[in-house]
Amino acid sequence: MRATPIAANGTVRYGRPSPGPFPVVRPVRAPEPLARMTDHGRAAPFLEAGDHRGAAEAVLREYGPQLLGYLSSILRNDADAAEVFSQFTEDLWRGLPGFRRECPVRVWAYRLAWHAAARHLRDPYRGRGRRLETHELSRIADEVRSSALLGRREARQRGIDRLRARLQPDEQTLLVLRLDRGLSWREVATVLADEGDAVDEPALRKRFERLKEKLARMAREEGLLE
Q: Which segments of the protein form a coiled coil according to its record (predicted)?
């Protein structure tokens, strides 16, 4: 048995403990802070009060138009965008009680919209025609959808009108007569014919097709068409 060392003054001397493996203490990561209430826009007071319906309506009114524009840009079809927007609205309504405010509500709304679009791209017929349980929220979604899509169509039409204004007068006349007024090719040829001359209808059709291609190319360059 090993004797315990005794100092000259009678006190017991303890040696250093032998080195050995020690557990590594790692700092505990603090939980992510909640997003500031100012990050939630008009929905902030409703989220704070736990008013999910009020929060959903605020999100739709504040961010609905830009979300619908986003969906239209990635789906490239207004009808599909409107359908997916309906699905997004349902996901928003069902998801708000579990929204933990760890990111701004706008970011969370875009996440919902993207996932709704991704599901649609995988299966376009899944969930088609579903309606919200809340009449008021459904009404707001319809209002946002109609207003935003109408605004997009009007803006696109204004852009097309600007492009058409850059065409030559005879090109504009051909578009107006055939597209806007619905004249037959024989009638268009009669209008465009010089005095005493006839216009070849097949040649007129080819010219019209080239003109449409030219206008479409101009529209794509301006970002009016995908």
A: none
Let me know whether 45 and 152 are in one domain.
Answer: yes
Question: Could you tell me if residue 88 is inside a domain?
Answer: yes
5-55 confidence digits (pLDDT tens): 545 555 445 455 455 554 444 554 544 455 565 578 899 999 999 999 999
Q: Distance between CA 9 and CA 13 in Å, rounded?
A: 10
Same domain, residue pair 46 and 132: yes
Is 105:64 a contact under the CB 8 Å cutoff? Answer: no
208's tokens: 């019209």
pTM of model > 0.70? no
Name the one residue in this structure whose structure tokens are 């990561």: 29
Q: What's the Cα-to-Cα distance from 175 to each of 55, 101, 161, 194, 203, rounded to whole Å?
A: 48, 53, 11, 18, 15
Query: Within 10 Å of residue 71's Cβ, how many Cβ atoms?
Result: 26
Angle between helices 201-221 and 185-192 (to 10 degrees): 90
- As to burial, measured by CB atoms within 10 angstroms (0-12 exposed, 13-18 middle, 19+ buried), residue 92 is buried
Q: Which of 141, 158, 175 is the last residue of a domain?
A: 158
